[in-house]
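thought: fold this chain, then report.
action: predict
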Amino acid sequence: MNGIEISKAYFEEYGLPMLSEQFPDILGYIAAGIMGSGSECLGFDDELSRDHDYEAGFCIFLPGEDIIDRRTAFLMERAYSKLPREFMGINRPLMMPAGGQRRGVMRTGEFFLDRTGTSDGILSVDSWFGIPEQSLLECVNGEIFFDGYGEVSEIRERLQYYPDDIMKKKLAGELMIMAQSGQYNYKRCIDHGEEAAAQLAVFSFVKSAMSAVFMLNRRYMPFYKWSFRALRSLPRLALLAELFEYLITTDNSQDLRKEKYDVIEAVASDISDELMEQKLSKAVCSDLEKHASSINDSIEDPGIRNMHILAAVR
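observation:
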């Protein structure tokens, strides 16, 4: 069982009975589940993951103090702390995880405020562009087991993925970087004898290409250490993971230069085909700069469309 399944089993065996018996009058205002930071919220946890900051627990989300007061929240925290510390061979750590509380009782608004700068998930254009992608992912990953009030589910739905114009601006920017770093600058760096700079161009190309693939799947890209694993599980373009790995783990020796450039062009071609299949771009070619311009031109909001093409790239 992965962490989400373990958390759900723990909630059903101990959490829901505790809430039903001790807090029946406010059960309709409570949400419970697992989301936020930690590999278990992505379903990626394994035995190695469980050596730190790992527990068989769940999150209890409460609305504001106007609905559930501080005293009740405190009593619920005490009730949660008294739940069994061991479940399925997993012990709850005595120390708080690095970065703060991950499980237990928390206010819904504070959870989303910490990750997005707003308690209700209503974001401005600047916020959509500026919030780290993994922070947005922490708002929608995992699973909500119970939501009597509906507030958590509503905010999660609001943040499920970038609005179309935001996604297009970000995608156009990443495609432009791919064109500059991979289709143009990699070969120029090689021709100048700058092998280290060529490898930086490769890294830039792969980073932007991975971001583009996640966007073409309408999925947030997780923190870098989980990005390849998540990429391999995507329904579209998952096989590009092998090409990305090849590009960043090989050198730029004389024997590999042409092959690496051909791989870059193959990636560009596959992504171009996907852009055309999804009718995101009107360009009919594998020139990523032309696709970037076409996608940017299709943005409906003139304020977003007229921003610099790299405005949404972080």
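thought: worth noting. Strands lie at 31-34, 59-62, 86-87, 90-91, 104-107, 143-147.
final: tokens above.
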